[in-house]
Amino acid sequence: MFDYPQGSGERKDGRNFGEFSGMAAGVAGRLPRVFAGCHKHVLSGGCSITGVSSISKKHLPVRQFAAVKAVKTEKKEPKKENLKPKSESKTDSNRHKPFGLTAWEPVDDVYRIQYYPKKVHDIETAVDMLKKFQQLDFTYPRQPVYIDLRLDMKLEKKKKVDPFVSIVHLPYAFTTTASKVLVFTETPEEAAVAQKHGADIVGGTELIQKILDDEIQADFYVSVPDMVSKLVPLKNKLRKKFPKSKRGSVGHNIPEMIEIFKTGHEYLVDRDCYILTKVGTLDMPRENIVANIATIIKDVCTHKPVGFGPFVERAIICSATSESLLFKVEPFLPQITEDNEEENENANN
Questions:
Q1: What pTM did the predictor assign?
Q2: Does 56 score more than 50 pLDDT?
Q3: Which of 52, 216, 236, 348 has the highest CB neighbour number within 10 Å of its CB?
């Protein structure tokens, strides 16, 4: 097997033959023990050849999963109605004194206002009190008189009355000068009619730039339907005065529109449900102021069917320098009749 020269006991690498034969004998002696160990490993049930013992497998963590429970589909029972009686809102009816206040009326003439409910006066008494305040305070006698109305805008279900603008002719005018009316039209015939019936300014698109530059101003702006689309640049400038059909400032009947806006009194709904407007001056007779108030409230009530209840919830009158006074508005409200009930039914249908 090995080609060594005879008569010599050494290899070329310097090792002698005796050393080599000893190493071979040592390896041959260990082989039976190695095979015996493998035989035992096989008999013990081990079949892994990766060097990982079977004992280590027993210590591996086992992940346990909880059993999934079947979800029961149960029918939800309808909610039981609350059988508890609803707490009624507190009212001052049948009480010896109102809630949170001392009494219904003060005993003396001098008292603290916050401890008693504010008194509601008849309209005649309220106007007389305003005149007396003016005399005691030595204020301007021709100062304007205002009324502040709070409206109930609710209709059936979720419907409401839309905020509106209206013009009414007062029986007793309190302004010395007529309103300035501007008419938009490009037809020569309509322009001639407008000037004949008292229009202060008449013109077409040539007036737009002059209005934007504040060279021309008017109290009311009236237009024929064909001109409305050409006046769009004036919307932000005129705002509430911009001609609208709902307001009655757009139409073909120019003489009627000029008459209404020249001598009429305009009021509008502001802040969703409030109307603040002038009704006269303090130097006017009491009957004239009351007549103007009645005319305005009557016109306001025409914007809501009577069958839905009173339209005006609260009414206040005051002058430019006086305190506000509550007055009774019930005498001015329309009464429910059979005709009103039929109109209400038709509106619901």
A1: 0.66
A2: no
A3: 216
